[in-house]
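Protocol step 4 of 6.
Sequence for Type VII secretion system protein EssD-like domain-containing protein (Terribacillus saccharophilus) entered exactly as in the expression construct, tag removed. Do not edit the line below.
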Amino acid sequence: MLASSGNFNKLEEGAVKVASRLGSPRITGAGNAGVSDVKTVVEKGQQFTNGRRNRLKPNIRYQTGEYDYFYETDTAGRITKFETDKLQLTTREDRLPHSKNTLGKVKGQDHAGHLAGDRFGGSPKIDNLVSQLSDVNLREYKKIEAEWATALSEVPPKAVKVDVKIIYSGNDPRPDKFIVNYFIDGKPGSKIIKN
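Step 5 output, structure tokens:
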């Protein structure tokens, strides 16, 4: 009997939930430079160190935000990946206040930039925020987000899949660049944004 891709997706989701409950390692991100291939899947809310909301655990895969988007960290606890197979617009009308203190933030130059924007139900906490140049946050990344939002606002909404890799130089806590890959109804798009 051949399995459909839908069945594989359900099977993978079930395995992720079980692995999450057990706190077992999961192999992810094979081939990503600077990213460990083995990540521990943690339960929602357990991605922070010692219950502190300003640091993330190293080498983990976690879900956060209104729609439980996936994220990964490296050995230093820096966010290295944001991904979702189903980006969604929030139904909330008000913007949530968000943490301003991101790792490596350069005062007067950087913003606390959402990887999954507020309009997509992205978490307002440090588990979805990185230091972004103000021009990156307000122009380059925002332009891509506007494209996603337009696709999701259509009737019926288009399917938007997103995979953002966050690249760092050495041990610098501030991202060096963002590699943004996405699909809108199967049509690929990509952009490399220097930070």
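Step 6, annotate. Strands lie at 25-27, 38-41, 60-64, 69-73, 79-84, 110-114, 129-133, 160-167, 177-184, 187-194.
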